[in-house]
Amino acid sequence: MESSSLWTQGILLVTIATTVVLGSVEKELSPECRVFLYMGTPPVGLENHSLQTICQRYNSKPRYVTLYDTDNRVPIYSAYTFKRSDGEKRVDVPWMYEPQLSSGSATGDMQAFPRGYMHSNFEDAQAVLEDYTNAVSYERGHLNPDEHQGDPDDKASTYTLTNVVPQ
Questions:
Q1: Measured over all CA atoms, what is the biggest interatomic distance in the chain, rounded to whole angstroms?
Q2: In whole angstroms, how far apart are CA 162 and each of 70, 74, 114, 148?
Q3: 82 versus 85: which is more confidently predicted?
Q4: C-alpha dihedral, 15 to 21 to 22 to 28, nearest 10°
Q5: How far apart (Å, rounded) are the C-alpha atoms in residues 39 and 162?
Q6: What distance in Å separates the CA atoms of residue 147 and residue 90, rounded to the nearest whole number?
Q7: pLDDT tens by residue, 89-98
Q8: What are φ and ψ of residue 93, in 5° steps?
Q9: What CA–CA distance (Å, rounded) separates 19 from 109?
Protein backbone atom coordinates (compact mmCIF):
# COMPACT_ATOMS: atom_id res chain seq x y z
CA MET A 1 0.00 0.00 0.00
CA GLU A 2 2.81 2.42 0.92
CA SER A 3 4.77 1.76 -2.29
CA SER A 4 1.64 2.56 -4.32
CA SER A 5 1.28 5.88 -2.50
CA LEU A 6 4.97 6.73 -3.04
CA TRP A 7 4.67 5.81 -6.72
CA THR A 8 1.62 8.09 -7.09
CA GLN A 9 3.46 10.95 -5.38
CA GLY A 10 6.47 10.39 -7.68
CA ILE A 11 4.23 10.60 -10.76
CA LEU A 12 2.65 13.78 -9.41
CA LEU A 13 6.07 15.38 -8.86
CA VAL A 14 7.23 14.44 -12.38
CA THR A 15 4.01 15.88 -13.80
CA ILE A 16 4.46 19.14 -11.89
CA ALA A 17 8.14 19.41 -12.90
CA THR A 18 7.30 18.72 -16.55
CA THR A 19 4.59 21.38 -16.51
CA VAL A 20 7.04 23.98 -15.18
CA VAL A 21 9.77 23.12 -17.72
CA LEU A 22 7.65 23.04 -20.86
CA GLY A 23 7.35 26.80 -21.28
CA SER A 24 4.37 29.01 -21.55
CA VAL A 25 2.85 28.46 -24.98
CA GLU A 26 -0.03 26.42 -23.70
CA LYS A 27 -2.78 24.36 -25.27
CA GLU A 28 -4.59 24.26 -21.93
CA LEU A 29 -3.93 27.25 -19.71
CA SER A 30 -2.56 26.60 -16.26
CA PRO A 31 -4.61 27.79 -13.26
CA GLU A 32 -2.07 30.55 -12.55
CA CYS A 33 -2.68 31.97 -16.03
CA ARG A 34 -6.45 31.43 -16.09
CA VAL A 35 -6.84 34.11 -13.40
CA PHE A 36 -6.42 36.74 -16.13
CA LEU A 37 -9.48 35.47 -18.04
CA TYR A 38 -13.07 36.35 -17.21
CA MET A 39 -14.35 33.48 -15.07
CA GLY A 40 -11.17 31.58 -16.06
CA THR A 41 -12.56 30.87 -19.51
CA PRO A 42 -10.90 31.83 -22.82
CA PRO A 43 -13.10 33.40 -25.51
CA VAL A 44 -14.74 31.00 -27.96
CA GLY A 45 -14.92 31.22 -31.73
CA LEU A 46 -11.23 31.99 -32.13
CA GLU A 47 -10.02 28.49 -32.92
CA ASN A 48 -7.43 28.29 -35.70
CA HIS A 49 -4.30 26.23 -36.29
CA SER A 50 -2.12 29.36 -36.33
CA LEU A 51 -3.34 30.71 -32.98
CA GLN A 52 -1.19 30.08 -29.92
CA THR A 53 -2.19 30.82 -26.35
CA ILE A 54 0.73 32.38 -24.50
CA CYS A 55 0.95 32.77 -20.76
CA GLN A 56 3.22 35.83 -20.84
CA ARG A 57 5.87 35.31 -18.15
CA TYR A 58 8.54 37.71 -17.01
CA ASN A 59 11.03 36.97 -14.23
CA SER A 60 9.39 33.55 -13.74
CA LYS A 61 5.95 35.00 -12.95
CA PRO A 62 2.81 34.99 -15.15
CA ARG A 63 1.89 38.58 -16.08
CA TYR A 64 -0.98 38.22 -18.62
CA VAL A 65 -2.37 35.99 -21.39
CA THR A 66 -2.16 36.59 -25.14
CA LEU A 67 -3.78 34.79 -28.05
CA TYR A 68 -1.18 35.13 -30.81
CA ASP A 69 -1.54 34.54 -34.56
CA THR A 70 1.74 32.98 -35.72
CA ASP A 71 0.82 33.24 -39.44
CA ASN A 72 0.18 36.99 -39.40
CA ARG A 73 2.54 37.62 -36.44
CA VAL A 74 0.11 39.76 -34.45
CA PRO A 75 -1.74 39.29 -31.15
CA ILE A 76 -5.51 38.70 -31.35
CA TYR A 77 -6.35 39.51 -27.73
CA SER A 78 -4.68 40.16 -24.42
CA ALA A 79 -6.19 39.36 -21.01
CA TYR A 80 -4.66 41.09 -18.02
CA THR A 81 -5.46 42.56 -14.64
CA PHE A 82 -5.59 46.35 -14.64
CA LYS A 83 -3.33 47.78 -11.96
CA ARG A 84 -3.32 51.50 -11.32
CA SER A 85 -0.08 53.05 -12.52
CA ASP A 86 1.79 55.92 -10.96
CA GLY A 87 2.25 57.31 -14.49
CA GLU A 88 5.90 56.40 -14.84
CA LYS A 89 6.79 54.51 -17.99
CA ARG A 90 9.37 51.75 -18.18
CA VAL A 91 11.26 52.88 -21.28
CA ASP A 92 14.65 51.32 -20.45
CA VAL A 93 13.46 47.77 -21.17
CA PRO A 94 14.68 46.13 -24.38
CA TRP A 95 12.06 44.70 -26.73
CA MET A 96 11.53 41.00 -26.13
CA TYR A 97 10.31 37.91 -27.96
CA GLU A 98 8.82 34.55 -26.94
CA PRO A 99 11.54 31.92 -27.57
CA GLN A 100 9.16 28.97 -27.30
CA LEU A 101 7.14 30.20 -30.31
CA SER A 102 10.10 29.84 -32.68
CA SER A 103 12.69 27.60 -31.16
CA GLY A 104 10.78 25.29 -28.85
CA SER A 105 12.88 26.61 -26.00
CA ALA A 106 12.13 25.21 -22.58
CA THR A 107 12.13 28.64 -20.99
CA GLY A 108 8.74 30.07 -20.23
CA ASP A 109 10.03 33.62 -19.83
CA MET A 110 10.11 36.18 -22.60
CA GLN A 111 13.66 37.09 -23.60
CA ALA A 112 15.37 40.22 -24.91
CA PHE A 113 16.36 40.00 -28.56
CA PRO A 114 20.02 38.95 -28.54
CA ARG A 115 22.61 41.25 -30.10
CA GLY A 116 23.16 40.35 -33.73
CA TYR A 117 20.28 37.88 -33.74
CA MET A 118 19.45 36.12 -36.96
CA HIS A 119 15.88 37.21 -37.67
CA SER A 120 15.17 34.00 -39.52
CA ASN A 121 15.21 32.25 -36.14
CA PHE A 122 12.20 34.27 -35.02
CA GLU A 123 10.24 35.66 -37.95
CA ASP A 124 8.64 32.36 -38.91
CA ALA A 125 6.24 32.57 -35.96
CA GLN A 126 6.37 36.09 -34.48
CA ALA A 127 7.06 39.71 -35.23
CA VAL A 128 10.67 40.90 -35.21
CA LEU A 129 12.22 44.31 -34.64
CA GLU A 130 12.61 44.94 -38.40
CA ASP A 131 8.82 44.81 -38.79
CA TYR A 132 8.69 48.18 -37.02
CA THR A 133 11.78 49.95 -38.34
CA ASN A 134 9.75 52.25 -40.61
CA ALA A 135 8.27 54.41 -37.86
CA VAL A 136 6.57 56.63 -40.44
CA SER A 137 4.26 53.79 -41.45
CA TYR A 138 3.85 51.80 -38.24
CA GLU A 139 4.05 52.46 -34.53
CA ARG A 140 4.05 49.73 -31.91
CA GLY A 141 0.64 49.67 -30.24
CA HIS A 142 0.35 47.65 -27.03
CA LEU A 143 -2.74 45.51 -26.43
CA ASN A 144 -1.74 45.44 -22.76
CA PRO A 145 -0.37 48.98 -22.26
CA ASP A 146 2.41 49.51 -19.77
CA GLU A 147 0.32 52.33 -18.31
CA HIS A 148 -2.22 49.72 -17.16
CA GLN A 149 0.43 48.12 -14.94
CA GLY A 150 1.69 49.48 -11.62
CA ASP A 151 4.60 47.13 -10.84
CA PRO A 152 7.88 47.75 -12.73
CA ASP A 153 8.15 44.07 -13.75
CA ASP A 154 4.53 44.05 -14.97
CA LYS A 155 5.31 47.19 -17.02
CA ALA A 156 8.47 45.58 -18.40
CA SER A 157 6.53 42.48 -19.47
CA THR A 158 4.46 44.55 -21.90
CA TYR A 159 7.53 45.18 -24.08
CA THR A 160 7.32 41.97 -26.05
CA LEU A 161 6.44 41.97 -29.74
CA THR A 162 3.77 39.36 -29.01
CA ASN A 163 1.91 42.19 -27.23
CA VAL A 164 2.21 44.64 -30.13
CA VAL A 165 0.00 45.43 -33.11
CA PRO A 166 0.92 47.88 -35.87
CA GLN A 167 -0.75 51.28 -35.48
A1: 70
A2: 9, 7, 16, 17
A3: 82
A4: 50
A5: 24
A6: 9
A7: 655 888 898 8
A8: -95, 130
A9: 14
Burial class of 164 by CB neighbour count within 10 A (0 to 12, 13 to 18, 19+): buried
Cα distances from 54 to residues 4, 99, 140, 148, 163, in angstroms, run: 36, 11, 19, 19, 10
* Coil vs helix vs strand at 82: coil
Q: Is 26 exposed, middle or buried (0-12, 13-18, 19+ CB in 10 A)?
A: middle
User: What would the pLDDT profile of 120-160 be if each residue is shown by its tens digit?
Assistant: 667 788 888 888 776 677 778 899 998 899 888 999 999 99
**pTM for this one?**
0.77
Residues 53/23, Cβ–Cβ less than 8 Å: no
**Model confidence pLDDT, tens digit, residues 36-54:** 999 999 888 888 888 999 9
CA atoms of 155 and 150, how far apart (whole Å)? 7
